[in-house]
Amino acid sequence: MCTADSNETLKEYSARIEQLARDLGLDYYPVDFELVPNNFMMEIAVYGLPVRMPHWSFGIRYIHQLIRQGMGHSRIFEVMFPGDPCRAYLVNSNTLPENTLVTAHVLGHADFAKNNHLFAKFMEMAGGHILEQAAARAHRIEEALHEHGQQRVEAVLDAALALEPHIDINRELHRPLYPTTPPAAPAKAEIAPELDAFHRRYRSLPGERPPEEAAPAPRRASIPPQPEYDLLWFIAHYGPDLEDWERDIFLAVREESFYFYPVFACQIMNEGWASYWHARLLREADFLPQDLYLSAIKAHSDVVRPYAAEQQLALAVNPYHLGFSIWEDIIEKHGLEAARRICKEEDDFGFIRNYLTRELAEKLQLFVYQARDDGDIRISDNSIHAVHEAILAPKFNYGAPRIAANHLHVDGSLQLLHDHQSDGRGVDLSRAERVLEYIGKVWRRPVTLHTVGDRGEARVVTSKRI
Description:
19 helices, 3-stranded mixed beta sheet, alpha+beta, globular, 11 strands, 4-stranded mixed beta sheet
């Protein structure tokens, strides 16, 4: 545990590690470090932010995390928020060697966040001051609770947070509404028929004019004009009866989802890059005492180990271990400059498909397994393509089913459509019913979801009448 003396020592080591990081070419926005109690760190990890909109679902996540930590399955060393400046929280009950390692790890994260194209793009859209923005939103929601009551505010939060991953990361955060009229069809060039002498004379008689055609009635543009996958944006702007404060909640959740998307989409790359740099920084930090260095390296080995416990193989990928192993392989084969280019240009999809080679997968003993009904576990596939897709499948579309707002009917009822072909799966129908119930309470008109069941049969889920 860090004491007052060890905190001063940590500040000294942190300053020298930062200077070493700059000397080795790391480029990052300033990092503000803060030591916090373990329970506060738990809240940050569960809520995603130090201060965030209140909701009962975060309490459930907190209990789940507490149980996992009590069973020894999860331990939080740090949480870092990209921005300018970056904000990093370290647990004050960590040992001095652990927090020295975590400091170096955070600098690797900070370098990745500043230089990776996806982080840069989304930070430009969502801003680099997420903590202050989130605190301001939480304050506005507290005001809404006081003005409109817990039941109404909670109903809106239920719907918005249930749709948290349903954004369209290929569109801009700030985008215009749909056009109110459909695009005009290109004008057809008309060729006047050649007239004989009689018709030419008839046309020239006074009072003889062809009747004028009545102007066509203006057409109403279809809403949405094409399937809309940004459900938070669509409901915020086209919910027929939403009040301004309700729209603000949907847009607040959407903006935070945009901010967190790069963290989700680059997790393996990011954790691996930070692990590579904390190992290298500690190795080259000759000012660290030998016993502290050995303890820190022991902590490093625990973080990047591929095992669930002892020598028992894990049935889930450790992103620290996988990312660290791939970066080491890249740097050994292609050099650090090539690694920096990859760090800038890729996300986990390109990183895994392009740089997790067959040889490396075999070395790391990666395979796809199948759990049988009798409890037996068998390797079902160890081809490199199957391994790639098994790692990446949970990351597709922010880990959520690909569902679009497909049609807004004249009576205000809404049709949602599940793109199950690109998903390659159905949806959990019981969960879909709960989410539609949440949406129905804020949409206040019928909402239907067209999807498929476990066997690919067509299914329609309808919200209850409000």
